[in-house]
Amino acid sequence: MYRYDDFDRQLVLERTEQFREQVKRRLSGDITEDQFRPLRLMNGVYLQLHAYMLRVAVPYGTLRADQLRQLGYIARRYDKGYGHFTTRQNIQYNWPKLAEIPDALLDLAKVEMHAIQTSGNCIRNTTTDQYAGAAADEIEDPRPYCELIRQWSTFHPEFTYLPRKFKIAVTGSPNDRAAVKVHDIGLRMHQNDAGEVGFEVIVGGGLGRTPFVGKTVRDFIGKNDLFSYLEAILRVYNRFGRRDNKYKARIKILVHEIGVEEMQRLVEEEWAQIKDGSLRVDDAEIVHYIEQFAPPAFETLSDDDAEFERRKAENREFSNWVRSNVIAHKQPGYAIANVSLKPIGGIPGDATDTQMELVADLSEQYSFGDVRVTHEQNLVLPHVKKADLFSLWAELKNANLATANLGYVTDIISCPGLDYCALATARSIPLSQRISERFSDLDRQHDIGELKIKISGCINACGHHHVGHIGILGLDKRGKEFYQITLGGDASENAEIGKIAGAGFSEAEVVDAIESLVTKYLGIRETGERFIDTYRRVGMDPFKEVLYGDR
Amino acid sequence: MSLQVVTANRLDDGLVVFLTADGGWSENIDQSRIADGKEAGDALLAEASVPELDTVIVGPYLIEVEQQDGGLIPTKYREVLRTKGPSVRQDLGYQAE
Amino acid sequence: MAIVKNDSVIDQEWVTLDAEADLPSGEENIIVPLARFKEERETLIGRNGGLGVQLNPGDVPEDLANDLDRLSIITVNFPAYTDGRGYSYARILRERLGFKGELRAIGDVLRDQILYMHRCGFDAYELKNDDDVSLTKVRAALKEMTVYYQPTGDGRATAASLRERRRAALKSAS
Ligand code: HEM
Ligand code: SF4
């Protein structure tokens, strides 16, 4: 895993000191709230419904054990004993005091972490596949490039006051687990005809008020040229992105308004001028970064482990967990273990201080001290020996971290909604809890199979509802919460924006509505079909009918 | 007639506070100074928006309230949550005390 | 109001004209908006006295490509500090078009953006504060950070280049 060197460390420390000064200037009245707001936002400090909120970056979703342990410590020391993992592979704390945040940031800096650029109209934390470096289907580990993007984008002097926020996601696998097509820039690694590995560049995806699936501006950009190419896109966006209306300021609107061909032309024209400049990264440097993410010291094992098989046969609960939460690893004898932060009836993505510390310990014991954060608000131990899975599972189970529901109907993405968020129009967490309880029966969940429910508490779509197989958007109708259902969304390589089914449902009705959709699917699915497959085959009408009848 | 109070977040710890009768800020909505009607509301908000308060509170705004059982309850659910705490964590926020 | 350049406060030696204002008859140094420069180019470059151009957000800095050696100063206006187009204009002027004159940030120029401006090629900053405060602010802003990841035209060594130098030194030492 990448370790900071003295340059990285110095930069974060300087930033921490700078923010300490800014907080001091604010508290003493040297600068007003209007002047301070953008500064605190650039350091991940929001003001939310109840208190400040601190958003800490987990660059490309990779954590070391000591870092996760420190996140647990910070939850206890500066917050109320928990944190919330988000769809942006970040963690949010909900109750820090402004005066103490500089100390919290210093504690983060001690483990090479920070809250830089987790808000504001700048390039945000780069996200990627949570199984990077472990997935069996991977072409190449995307994290060396993510780290280079992190450095390139950190305090980029030209791109700190963009028209709007800017999010980049990278996938190294053909099976996209990073939702790259709904980011401002999505990078998909693949091999060109000459056998070189590079990136397809997708621009202008996004959710929010006007969702779009991104469009390809370039089929292939080589690794050496990636950074000058990104700079060209950002420069075009910085110059030509709209600034007259904050809802039309994302790059997706620019691409939509001028068309992808014109966007392509502008980017290529800009790129032609800078491609041979100092942003070209040579092979030696790329190799240097690849080495930083070298695989851990795997043992040479047979892919079959008799003990593991025996445990599975003997223990149904364990085998259920393996079936849903354990995923194939590229190294024989190893597996990827997902740690669900979606206990039945729990708050999606929340983890307590002790849970974080426990997972940190377990990662040291079983996974080379490597932990991942997923955009679906779960944690991952990426490199577990199959032989260890049973004892890992037993320990997770003791801490209520072994819910066997990954990808199932109760593995719900939910934004904080009105319970925490100042922008919300409705609550989203209680709804996810009630859906989770309704479908708590594990056999039923297994039977239903993969079904992604995603809930946002307002049109900003932080809960990705547009790309949920079933999406739920919370709105306010004359002072009452009500919920609009979308169907057919998909965040994968087959990205699709869901369609609104019809009129919204009251809080009392919505869980029944979801259940009726699921029942319908079970009634009409063909063998092997997931909910999304059935929807694609039959379309909206049969589902609309169960929701609205003749209405 | 519509009753209103001014709420904001306290600068140093960010917690929700309400403008009180003596011009201070309280965590308890029941201690709020109440304005009756639009004009009184605007005057109250103006009082809470003076530059001197920029080092005490952030983002003052008016909310509508109703009198109930001798206490004040905001008419909007969002504001009810602010006076209590997250509905999904009854152990946190003012409701926990 | 104060203008800080090269670690000191300098005098305002330029008069900025809007689209309509009459051209002064004497040898005053004047700055005109880009649009006016394009319209009255012949007259303006035929005058005695210094000439500068002001860029506003939305302008195309490349329009000045053939006239840069006639201009002693270009001011880039930031109507609001949140409008970051001027950073791109500065880099294009310096790094692509090779402008060597004074590049001055005007408008909503605040301490916390000055380092970014400097990195993009600005060498002068017009602040709303008085002389001493402005100078103190610019000095503090320019030394707040010492590690830079991005190569720009400002000549600062990037972390990547320093790392490479160190690796090379280690290699030759071993
Ligand atoms: C709690 C404070 C939060 C605030 C104030 C906030 C604000 C916003 C806003 C204004 C947008 C729309 C931006 C636009 O379309 O230009 C947005 C989008 C988004 N936010 Fe949040 N958000 C918050 C929390 C979260 C959380 C908790 C997550 C993850 C669970 C998240 C992830 C996202 C994502 C994925 C999008 C949509 C993708 C995009 O178009 O960028 N945000 N947020
Ligand atoms: S979707 Fe809306 S309610 Fe949910 S976190 Fe984002 S801004 Fe808040």
From TrEMBL, chain A:
It holds the Pfam family NIR_SIR. InterPro entries: NiRdtase/SiRdtase_haem-b_fer, Nit/Sulf_reduc_fer-like_dom_sf, NO2/SO3_Rdtase_4Fe4S_dom, NO2/SO3_Rdtase_4Fe4S_prot, NO2/SO3_Rdtase_4Fe4S_sf. Residues 52-110, 347-398 form the Nitrite/Sulfite reductase ferredoxin-like domain. It comes from Thalassospira xianhensis MCCC 1A02616. One of its GO terms (biological process) is sulfate assimilation. Its cofactor is siroheme; [4Fe-4S] cluster. Keywords: 4Fe-4S, Iron, Iron-sulfur, Metal-binding, Oxidoreductase. GO terms for molecular function: 4 iron, 4 sulfur cluster binding; heme binding; metal ion binding; sulfite reductase (ferredoxin) activity; sulfite reductase activity. It comes from the Bacteria. GO terms for cellular component: sulfite reductase complex (NADPH). This is Sulfite reductase. Residues 119-273, 410-547 form the Nitrite/sulphite reductase 4Fe-4S domain.
UniProtKB/TrEMBL annotation, chain B:
Pfam families: DUF2849 (PF11011). InterPro entries: DUF2849. This is Sulfite reductase.
UniProtKB/TrEMBL annotation, chain C:
It holds the Pfam family DUF934. It comes from the Bacteria. This is Oxidoreductase. It comes from Thalassospira xianhensis MCCC 1A02616.
